[in-house]
Amino acid sequence: MSARVFIDGAVGTTGLQIQARLEGRSDIELTRLAEAVRKDPAARADMLNSVDVAILCLPDDAAKDAVAMIENPAVKVIDASTAHRVADSWAYGFPEYDADQRAKIASATRVSNPGCYAVASISIFHPLVSSGLLPADAAVTINAISGYSGGGKALIQSFEDPDSENPIHAPYFVYGLSLNHKHVPEIQAHGGLSKRPLFVPSVGRFAQGMIVQVPLQLWSLPGAPKAADVHAALADHYAGQRFVTVASMEDAAGIGRIFPESANDTNDLRLFVFANEAEGQAVVMAQLDNLGKGASGSCVQNLNIMLGLDEGAGL
Q1: So where are the chain's domains?
Q2: 116 an active-site residue?
Q3: Which of 78, 105, 108, 116 is catalytic?
């Protein structure tokens, strides 16, 4: 018997991507509201309470309202907004986070889907902090660039439609200049950091793809670890994982350029350690599709785990 799944907010970028990954699967029955009642609270409440899993692709306040509508204790929820990402009562939807994270997701009725910048940053910080290589109170910086699809319909239109109200002609732009990006609390909490990281995001003139960089002054860390120690901590943490991989030091040393679109249309999160050993410096870099492992791909992965299905189905 197939599981009934409702995507609340299926007309947005993430919702459409999730829908595309689920359509045609015999183990999933996608349920939909008729267009005439799509925004009707009573119709939405009935639907939310009648399915096996509700996936919320909504603004934060609307996601909280949707959760409040659910009275059926059998309904499982995956929230793709930022509303519950640091809530203790919600399982964090990064299966590769720790050895027992899949079990937590599998047994949960409430799962928060990670943010794109956040899952990449956390994939770097968590293993380094938990292994003791990076102090929890270290002064860390994150530099990142994403495709414009991460900004939703308005930003997509600004890049793609020259007749839009706010057309963007530049090759890229930096934003979050108040240094208060909404992903920072999530990165700090799940990254194991006791001090707030300095996060500098930007958007480029490409639809999908992402690179997240964490520079490390190795000479300033306790014990002055080598780049090989950083690589070993990451490689050990993600050994045997299907969707998170760590390039060998040899392979990384042979790379001259990293492109943000190389992981597009996958659920892969690829980690690299680049180093200047003589100067005691390294950069840990994550490459992913902001709509894949950074959004809809990870959501489908979590859905599969919650339903006891093949984790890679639809991915």
Answers
A1: 3-113+295-306, 116-290
A2: yes
A3: 116
Q: Identical fold at 3-113+295-306 and 116-290? A: no
Three-class secondary structure of residue 72 per DSSP: coil
Q: How far is residue 89's CA from residue 244's CA, in Å, rounded to a whole number? A: 26
Residue 204 has a pLDDT of 97
Given the candidates 3.30.360.10, 3.30.110.70, 2.40.320.10, 3.30.420.40, the CATH classification of the domain at 116-290 is: 3.30.360.10
How much is the pLDDT for 295?
96
* Residue 50: partners with Cβ closer than 8 Å, 6 or more residues away: 4, 31, 72
| Interacting residues of 129 by C-beta distance below 8 A, sequence separation 6+ | 135, 136, 191, 192, 193
Q: Dihedrals φ, ψ of 200, to 5°?
A: -120, 95
CA 161 centroid distance within chain:
27
- How high is the pLDDT of residue 1? 76
Low-confidence ranges of the chain (pLDDT < 50): none
Confidence at residue 144, expressed as pLDDT on a 0 to 100 scale: 98
pLDDT of residue 87: 95
pLDDT at 36: 81
3-state SS, residue 69: helix
DSSP state letter for 118: H
> What CATH number belongs to 3-113+295-306?
3.40.50.720
Q: What is the DSSP string of 254-304?
A: T-----TTTTTTS--EEEEEEEEGGGTEEEEEEEE-TTIIIIIHHHHHHHH
Alpha carbons 155 and 161: distance in angstroms, whole number: 10
pLDDT of 163 reads 83
User: How far apart are alpha carbons 210 and 187 in whole angstroms?
Assistant: 16
